[in-house]
Amino acid sequence: MVLEQLATQIGLPEWLLRGVLAPLVYPGLGAFAAVALFIIWAERKIAAKVQMRVGPLYVSRHLGGALQLLADGIRIAFQEIIIPVTVERKAYVAAPIFAFAIIAASLAVIPGGPGVYGFSSSVSLLVPFALLGLIPIVIAVMGWASNNKFTYIGAGREILVTVAGEVTLLASLLATAMMYGSLDINEIVTMQIEAGIPGIVVNPIAAFLFFVAALLMTDRIPFDVVLGEQEIVQGPYTEYTGLLFVLNMALDYGKLYALMLLFSDLFLGGWMPFNGVLLGSLAVFIKTLVLMLIAIFLRSVYGRMRIDQIASMFWSRLFPLALVSLVVSAVVHIVYTP
Amino acid sequence: MGEEKSSRPRINLIKAHIDAISAALRRMTKPPMTLMFPDYEEAWPEGYRGFILYDYDTCIGCSLCAQICPARAIKMYRVPGDKRIRPGYNVGRCIFCGLCVDICPVDALSYSYVHDEVYSEVNPMNMDPIDWALWSKRIKEKEKSAKPKLKPVIDEDIGLRYEVTKNVEGEE
Lengths: 338, 172
Hints:
heterodimer, A: mainly alpha, B: 172 residues, alpha+beta, Alpha-Beta Plaits, 24% helix
C-alpha cells in the first residue's frame, strides 16, 4: 500500500501516519475544506437556479462566481473576534473548537477508500455515531455559555431534534450492521463488493431513514429549526463572530460530510467499481459529493417544518419504519447467509 | 391538547414530494430573469422624469420655477457679477414632479433620465446656480455614456424576460 511505503521511507510507525493523515488530509479536514468551499457555492448557485436568479457571479466571473466563498472567507478571517462581556469566556471560545475536533476525530474511522482510514476496529461503525452524538452536548454548552435568549432556545431545540434524529439514525445503522452481521465499516464495504449489490438495493428503507435522519442532524432545510433564521437569528451560534463563527458554520457541513461519507460506505458500496487506492478513493469522494449536492438541493424544494411536526414525524412515522427496516435486515441476513 | 380533529384534504404524500422536486428541477432548466444591473440598464419610458437640468445661458431669471416648486427645492439666488437672480436646486428636496420644467417660459430647465446619484453628505445636495449648471453638464455626459438598455417583456413560459431595445441612442 502507498501509506506503508511512505511510513517506511519516513521512518515513522504506520499507525501514527494513518492516525494523523486520515483526520487531517483525506477523508479528513483537508478534503472537507475543499468540499465545503464547493458545496456552499453550489448551494447558493442551485437555490438561485431554482428561483430563476443568477447567484454569486462577480467574484471570478469566468468561473461563475466560484471564488466568492474564498473572498468571504478571507474577509471573515480578518474580522475581529468579538467576545461579549456577558459570556462565559472559556466555554464560549472552546466549544466551537471542541465540536470541530470531534468531527475530525470521527473522520478518522470512516474509510475514504480501500485501506484509506485512520483506525480500524471491529466496532468502527459505532464510533462516528458515538462521536457525532457528543456534538449536541457541546452545542448546548455553546448556547448556555453565550448567555443569550436566542442561543438558549437554539440549544434546547438542538437537543430535542437530536434525540428524535439519533434514534432513527441508530436504528438504520443497526439494521445495516444486522444485515451484514458486522460492525466494521471496512468489512461491510467488502461484503457489498463481494455480493456485487450495494446496500441501498438490499435495504432501501434503512438508506432512506439514514438520509432523512442525517438531514435532521445537520440542520438541513426541511428540518432547520435549530438555526431558524427567521425566528432565532442563528440559533446557538448567534453570538459568534469571525473565525469562531466560520467554525460553527462549517460544523453543520462537517457533520453532513461525515454522515454522507458513511452513507456512501454503507449503502452505495463504498469504492465499489474500483479496487485501487486512488480510483477507489475518488469513487467514494464523488459519491459523497453527489449525496451532499442532493441534500443541499432539497433546500430549494421544501419549507421549514415546525418543531412539533418534526418530532411527531420522526417518532410516529419514521421510527416504526425503522423497526420495519430491522425486520427486512433480519430476513435478508437469514436468506443470504449460508 | 385539543380534542377536536381538523379535517384536512387527504393528499398522496409520495406524489406530492415527487411533484415538488420535479417542479424545482424543471425550473432549473429555465434561464434566469435577472436584469444584470451595472452592465445593463432598464429602458426608460417616454417622458421619464429624472433630475432637473439647468441651462445657465438660456435662463432669463423670471423665478417662476421657484414660485411653482411645491417642495421648495428651487430657490432664487443672487450671483455676484450677474444682474439677474438665478435659481438654485436642492436635490434632496426635489420630488421630480416636473412642474418647473413645464412652467419655464424659455425651456432653460429640462428632464434627465438619471435619478441615481449617491451623496455621502447633505450639503452638496443643495446647489447654487453655477453649481447646478456645472452639475447638469456632468449628468448629461453620464446620460450619454449610459449602458445598454433592456426592456422587460412578459413571457408566457418563464414570466419575465429582458429584450434589447432598438431605439438606443447612438446605436441606430
